[in-house]
What we know:
By secondary structure, the protein is of the alpha+beta class. It folds into 2 domains: 25-87, no CATH class; 99-159, no CATH class. It is 28% helix and 19% strand.
Amino acid sequence: MPHPSAADAPNAAARAAAVAPLAPIAAKKPYAVPSPNGARVDNYYWLRDDTRQSQEVLDYLHAENTYRDAVMAPTQPLQQQLYDELIGRIKPDDASVPVYEHGYWYYTRFVPGQDYPIYARRKGTLSAAEEIMLDGNAMAVGHDYFQIGSADLRTRRMMSADGNTR
């Protein structure tokens, strides 16, 4: 097979461009966003869909994700290698430092092979029986995505990822 010459470079670039996916371009739809300091125009305000119901927005996001997947496909082996290295450095049974408050020791811990923390406490001493206050692994069952936003179990207030206090 002959070695490609400089004259072949434009042809190679054209072939690569023909194979590369095209990035979706969001439509510009001017919208005046009100503000105490005067309105401003946001051409992409239409992409804000807090209800996740607009088919036009969902179609655009699907196109963006498809483009990302196609562009990132060649890096998949490296992504997996980095992921494996990061996971390999995490202690599977990690736990926080216990904090003593109002007669209880509060802490979080992880169970090897599971993804989410367990929030627990022990009354009086660290050798007392464990009370599980919040089990992220049990809460995540049946969900494609799950995240505990924040939890202050010492006051028994929890905030979910959507900002709602529970």
